[in-house]
Amino acid sequence: MTDNNHDIEQPEERAPKRVIGTPSPAASTSLLGQEEPRRAEVVQVPGVIPQEEATARKGERYAALCFLAAFLGGIGFVVSYVVFQVGDLETTRVSNFALGASLTLALLGLAAGMTTWARMVMPKYNLVQERHSMASGSETRSYVGTTFVQGANESGLLKRPLLRRTLLLAAAPLGLAPLVLLRDLGPSYSDFPAKLRHTVWGQKTKDGKQRKLIVEGSGSPIRAADFNSPGGILSVVPEGYEHDLNELAKATLILIKFRPEELKSGTNLNWTHDGIVAYSKICTHVGCPAALYEQTTHHILCPCHQSTFDAADGAKVIFGPAARPLPQLPIAVDEEGYLVATADFPVPVGPSFWERGDAEAEVRENGAQQ
Amino acid sequence: MSLETVPKPIEGASTYVDDRLGAGNFLRRNLRKIFPDHWSFLLGEIALYSFIVVLLTGTFLTFFFKPGMAHVEYTGSYGPLQGVIMSEAYASALSISFDVRGGLLMRQMHHWAALLFIGGMMIHMLRVFFTGAYRKPREFNWLIGVLLLTLALLAGLTGYSLPDDLLSGAGLRITEGVAISLPLIGTWLTFFLFGGEYPGEDIVARFYSLHILLIPAILLALISAHLILMWVQKHTQMPGKGRTNENVVGAPFYPAFMIKAGAYFMFTFGVIALLGTFAQINPIWLYGPYSPADISAGSQPDFYMGFLEGALRLMPAWELNLFGGSGGTLALSVLIPALVPMGIVMTGLALYPFIEQWVTGDRREHHIADRPRNNPHRTAIGMSAVTFYGVLWLLGANDEISAFFHISLNWTTYAGRFLVIAGPVITYIVTYRICLGLQRSDAAILSHGVESGVIKRLPHGEYIEVHVPPHEAIEAHMRGKEAIPIVSGGGSGPDGRDDIPSRGMRGPLGRLRAKMSAAYGGEKIPLDDGHGHGGGHDAIGDGSHEEHATVGQDGEDKSLTR
């Protein structure tokens, strides 16, 4: 497929130094298996333009300097590994810099040295090689074709349909086997919709009480009377599930205190308590926590894709790619004055999924019927 | 000292090998294999060497990383997080950073090398595209390249999610939100991927086996195939003196290319080490463990995911419920940005060689790379795609843009929505004009020479600048241009013979093909036809055009060339 045809390429470049009639080294040497060792003559070859001796000598010195630097870098790396320990931020920083800088020196030193070597010591090349069409010849093609036909006939696969069909029959279920094995990657389908539609807010606690709203991080329940400065906002998790990531991915709330007159018609006032409103914190776009709140405009902003919701107006979408408002959670206070959830979200929280449907419309219809 | 003969030990060893493998035949053909030189041919090597660094550093990381999501209390040496409940994965990623010597360096180098791997692939792919190096016989290698890029994105996505910190978790959440929105299969896919509800306790381990075993194995196989094909088909070369479609001009593999490639590997490795040392990347200890309830503002994915992020941000809030309350939810505001841009880019890349072949009817082998200016429509299409991608990519950081330049966040989105449509169109026209302009300047140089800087005064007092012929290497480079073929039967063959359309060209598809071919191909600006520059430009444009296209079949093209 390739061959060593080093044609004369640029006469004017080789003219001054060329020894006429000398064979190219490729033609005269072969590395392997010679019965008599042949001579690899160092001569001028067309397309191989040697460096000036002065340049080559300079290149050698530069390259050697680079290699020495690389050597020191390599030593430095080993020494740094032994000398600098890790542990806290500061020691790790020092160790990282020492290791990294010495490694960089070693690698770049080698790189620079090799480049200098190639560019200043080794000859410049302008060799030419022939290219051939990728296609194999027509004779080869027809030979392969004939052989294929002959082999196919010899195999008997075409002549004996019973053999062919049973073979295919045997292969088909085996192809399915790996797919079958993947089945237990996930739970049974009957679980999906229920899990997507319900959160733990809809369940009573173990002792049969309504579930308290818990401040994320501190873990303490919220007394409505204490959460009384308008504009205040809390990130809230369900009691008993403060560290359950699967529940947090659905049930996390953003709790906002309004002056009661600030709330607009989009918000279900029956589900608020004294101007305190709870919305799902999980963005209805692709599920990031919609965590940013702007007090003056009552805007909730999701930092991922900037869906913006009007918290005073039922968290309806006023900008961005989210198509649905953040669902509102019905809340009230229990006998001790703590905020609790009175029921689950009326609609599924978080991103849309195929089976979801227009849950909001259903809720509206049911509301109208009541 | 110079060698006179092959040294005894080497000869002994090589004879031993050759007796058993016949390696001599291979070496005889390949030791002096010629590799053409051009700076742009090195771009793919960046990707290759970065991949090797990714494998090396990644192997080190696997020795210490624990891909588990069970909750543990952090007891490592990073003070601020001590006592915090977190996943095993995050705890071990912290331990790699703070309790393993060189661990932080390896982590950062791994991340930088991964970015360089994907970035290198993208730039390399652009080079191949704009020089037409994907043309016959290299279509297979182009397709392998498209697969490689897709897989590399997947490798990046799965790796990014492993440390299980707050930032990577945000990426994972978005991935989940996108996956669950897919019609019919979305919930299945998500519940199977996560082993139940999001986030579950399986995903890190599952991504881990994909990230360190399945994807790299396929990548390695495809990269090997990519290199073998490149080796067998030989590299393309830029047009130039003595370079033809039937030869390769350059330096031999042994010793020149070997040393240069080795040096280049060291450069890539060294630069990655430099970045890993001095340019902090993904400081996971600052983010804290993942919780689906939390996020930090300004969360950004790695650069290669930016265009998807931008598309998600740009999209208006469209959603359909096909069956009302009972299901059939189509979250178009998620589906379109997640699937369409990626689909356009990847499908477009994969199909382009074949579409171009269909349009030009060109079935020849091409080993001389095109200069981008010499195929203006291809270059314009490529630049349009780059603009499309670039606008989406930029808008993936619109919160940062708006914060940095103090402009309204909403307006960056509106501007992005406009630009993602208008940008590619404008770029197309501008690029096309620039290409023609550059072709004219080539023609002018060939017919008038280059300015010599010598001012001559003529007997009657006029001053002129003496023009001299260009250097022969430059001239040869420019003369490497060749007319793009036009499909025969399009009524506009170069010598005017194809006036009668063939049967296949008479139908509506055939007429479309002929029209596209006439617009796409031909010689827009003949090299030796340039009678001056400046005022003469219009004449050149029109003249060449009418010469090569039949009247009445080239409406759009005329509007572009005039």
What are the key terms here?
heterodimer, A: 370 residues, alpha+beta, four-stranded antiparallel beta sheet, 9 helices, 14 strands, 37% helix, disordered N terminus, B: 562 residues, mainly alpha, two-stranded antiparallel sheet, two-stranded antiparallel ribbon, 20 helices, 8 strands, 59% helix, 6% strand, disordered C terminus
At a glance:
Chain A is α+β, with helices and mostly antiparallel strands. Helix content of chain A is 37%, strand content 13%.
Produce the secondary structure layout.
The complex is a heterodimer of chains A (370) and B (562).
Chain A: H1 11-14, H2 25-28, E1 48-49, H3 53-83, H4 89-121, E2 124-125, E3 127-130, H5 138-155, H6 161-181, H7 191-197, E4 213-215, E5 233-238, H8 245-251, E6 253-257, E7 276-280, E8 292-294, E9 299-301, E10 308-310, E11 316-319, E12 328-329, E13 331-333, E14 339-341, H9 359-369
Antiparallel strand pairs in A: 1-2, 4-5, 5-6, 6-7, 7-12, 8-9, 9-10, 10-11, 13-14
Chain B: H1 8-21, H2 23-30, E1 34-35, H3 43-62, E2 71-73, E3 85-87, H4 88-98, H5 103-130, H6 139-160, H7 166-180, H8 186-193, H9 203-233, E4 247-252, H10 253-278, H11 284-287, H12 306-314, E5 320-321, E6 329-330, H13 332-360, H14 376-395, H15 398-405, H16 409-448, E7 450-457, E8 463-468, H17 472-479, H18 508-520, H19 537-548, H20 555-561
Antiparallel strand pairs in B: 1-4, 2-3, 5-6, 7-8
What characteristic shape of chain B results from the CA principal axes?
A: globular
Instruction: Tell me the major beta sheet of chain A.
Output: 5 strands, antiparallel
**How much β-strand is present in the residues of chain B?**
5-15%
**Parts with pLDDT < 50 across at least 5 consecutive residues of chain B:** 490-496, 530-562
State the end-to-end distance of chain B. Answer: 66 Å
Q: Helical region count of chain B?
A: 20
Fraction of residues in H or I helices of chain A: 25-40%
Element order of chain A: H for helix, E for strand: HHEHHEEHHHEEHEEEEEEEEEH
Strand order of the largest sheet of chain B: 1-4
